[in-house]
Amino acid sequence: MTKELYAILTRYKDLKCELQDISILIEEIETQLLPSGIRYDKEAVQKSPNDFVTELMLKDAELIKKKSEKAEEAYHAMTRIYALIDKLDQPERLLMKYRWISCLEWNEIAERIEYSVDWCYKHNRIALDKLETFIG
Q1: pTM of the full predicted structure?
Q2: Which of 55, 58, 63, 119 is nearest to 91 (CA)?
Q3: Long-range contacts of 102-110 (CB under 8 A, 24+ apart)
Q4: In the 8-state DSSP scheme, what is residue 38?
């Protein structure tokens, strides 16, 4: 497989992982922004929010914007993969969709398409060779 084809096929998976990481960060920040209970063991006077909250809110907004941009990139990457894969014959097309869009392991793919893992390996190689001719 050429570097160009590999870059096209792995871009969606990489972006999907980045989106998941950003979502986790957003969730952590938003959890920190939730109001906490009043502590009665320290001061009797409750203090107002400080700059820490403002910083968290700004970081949250930046991450949400970044997530939106990455989601759009992922959509375009997935569309590009589908455009390539749709040129293949049916069993190979399904195999490639499971591998590069759904990111499944070989044993899961073999189970879903009801072929052996060896068949999947063999036809993956054939499909990759065909895809190289489409981009070359």
Answers
A1: 0.77
A2: 119
A3: 103/13, 103/16
A4: P
pLDDT in tens, 34-65: 876 555 555 555 555 556 788 889 999 999 99
**Ramachandran bin of 114, using left for φ above 0, alpha for ψ from -120 to 50, beta for the remaining angles:** left
Asked if 90 and 42 touch (Cβ cutoff 8 Å), the reply is no
In angstroms, rounded to a whole number, what is the distance separating the alpha carbons of residues 111 and 71?
A: 30
CA 32 to mean position of chain CA atoms? 25
**Contacts of 33 by beta carbon, 8 Å cutoff, 6+ apart:** 53, 56, 57, 60
What pLDDT, in 10s, does the model give residues 102-112?
999 999 999 99
Quickly tell me which residue has 């049916």 as its tokens.
Answer: 90
Exposed / middle / buried, residue 71 (Cβ in 10 Å: 0-12, 13-18, 19+):
middle
Task: Tell me the Cα Rg of the chain.
Answer: 23
Contact 116, 110 (CB under 8 A): yes
